[in-house]
C-alpha cells in the first residue's frame, strides 16, 4: 500500500541581497529551520543584468555543511583555501562538502544572456561536521537523463530512477536531487523514501502537485510535502520544469550563523574564533 504525500505548504522565493551585493531569490533559509531538515537553505540566483550578480561571493568560510551549486545557464568561477579552482558551467553541478572548513570564493561570470543557478545547503550530522572537505565536480554530460514515458524527462543528479543512478553518491542524508520536465498534459508518480523530507521547486512553466493535483506551482514557488511514499505532479498548459529533492532528516540541534552551521553555540564561537585567528583550516584537510 503506498500512501501519496500531500502538500504541507507552499513558499514563494523572496528577493534578498547576499555576498558582496548579489541580488538573488531565497526560497528558504534560517527562518524555516527545522521544517526542511536536513536541508538548510535554497537560493535561486541570476539575472539578465550583470550588475545584479557580478559582485559575487568573495572569500568566505564554510563549516559543518555541504553546498550544492547547480548552474542552469552561465557560469561561476570558484577557488578555495585547498587550492581547488574551476568553473561551474551550464548544466554542471558542484557538490562541495565543507566539513571541518574551507574558505572559498564563488564569482558568477558575465553571461551573454541570462545567468541562472541554484545553491542548496545540506546539513551534516554531528559525526561528520568536522570531516575532511571534499569536492565533487559533476559535468553536465555525466548527468544521466531518463524518459520513463512520453512527455517526462528526468535528469538524475543524485538518487535513482528506473534503475539509473545519479553520479553523486555516498552522501550521509541519502539525497535525491532530480531535475524533472513534464510536457503539457504529462504526469508523474514518483516513489519517495519513507521518513525523508521531500520538496518540489518550480524552475519554469507551471504545474500542479499533490495527490489530487490541488496545488499549482509556477516559477519561484516551492511545495513541501507531508509524510508518505510517493509524490505526483502534472504539467498545466506549458512545460513544467521542477527540482524534486529529498533527504533523510538529521533531527539534531542547529546552531547557525552566516555560512557556518554547527550543533551548539560553543562550536559556532570556536569556528568564528578560529577564522579570526587564522586556524580555521585544518591541516589534515589539505
Ligand atoms: Fe560559499
How would you describe the overall organization of this protein?
By secondary structure, the protein is mainly beta. It has one domain (7-247): Jelly Rolls, CATH 2.60.120.10. Helices cover 5% and strands 50% of the residues. It has one helix spanning 265-277, and strands spanning 7-12, 14-18, 22-28, 39-47, 57-62, 65-73, 76-80, 85-88, 93-97, 102-108, 115-123, 134-138, 145-146, 152-158, 160-161, 164-165, 176-182, 187-191, 197-204, 206-209, 215-218, 221-225, 230-235, 240-247, 255-257, 260-262. It has a 7-stranded antiparallel β-sheet with strand order 1-22-19-24-17-14-13, with no helix packed on it. Strands 2-3-4-11-6-9-12 form a 7-stranded antiparallel β-sheet, with no helix packed on it. A 4-stranded antiparallel β-sheet has the order 5-10-7-8, with no helix packed on it. Strand 13 (145-146) and strand 14 (152-158) form a beta hairpin. The longest helix is centred in the last third of the chain and has 13 residues, at 265-277. The model has no long low-confidence stretch (mean pLDDT 96). Fe (ii) ion binds next to strand 5 and strand 10.
Question: Which terms would index this structure?
Answer:
286 residues; mainly beta; Jelly Rolls; seven-stranded antiparallel beta sheet; 5% helix; globular; binds fe (ii) ion
